[in-house]
Amino acid sequence: EDQVTQSPEALRLQEGESSSLNCSYTVSGLRGLFWYRQDPGKGPEFLFTLYSAGEEKEKERLKATLTKKESFLHITAPKPEDSATYLCAVGDYGGSQGNLIFGKGTKLSVKP
Amino acid sequence: ETGVTQSPTHLIKTRGQQVTLRCSSQSGHNTVSWYQQALGQGPQFIFQYYREEENGRGNFPPRFSGLQFPNYSSELNVNALELDDSALYLCASSLITPRAADTQYFGPGTRLTVL
After folding, report:
1. Which of residues 40-59 of A touch B (CB under 8 A)?
2. Which residues from chain B sit within 8 angstroms of residue A95, using beta carbons?
3. Are A78 and A17 in contact (CB under 8 A)?
4. pLDDT digit string (tens) for B14-30?
5. pLDDT tens-digit series, residues A26-53
């Protein structure tokens, strides 16, 4: 059964304090791994898509990496505006193309 | 480029009623997926529509149904509402191609409350 587990559930950082969020996954065949940011009461905002182990992508203070079993979202020198819930999702070749399996997310709070 | 839009923003219904939620996909996209997100949880896949036909379904009962129109917009219908149907309903659009893993872009969601 496909599974996505994110850790930690919640993370509190001081402004400028770098850290990483983890996403562990189990799928029969990885079609893609997706990172989203979600603000309270709003829809997820797309950040990155990763397709194969070893791939890395960056955007401003965020960098996503992928191995065969997990992905990390590294946040460098975060600012208060980075506070949000970060969701990880996977697509599985064994499932329907439209089915993204999401983790429960990591709620990030960045204090000034 | 127009993003994904959803209507209404909020909705309050009573148990047993029926509801229709609407979604307009991002320009250039041909596929719409619907998700249910309970408080504190990740989104759960309901179904996807491609070329006006259902193209995959999650573990949701038949009282959850949908439509896709020729302009790629979509509706989600839920009959016989239950209290547990209270959630944020998300629509996501994407472009299916033969090769690529399609990235899904989400709308702002519709908050449904069932009393």
Report:
1. 41-46, 49, 51
2. 56
3. yes
4. 999 999 999 999 888 88
5. 988 888 899 999 999 999 999 999 999 9
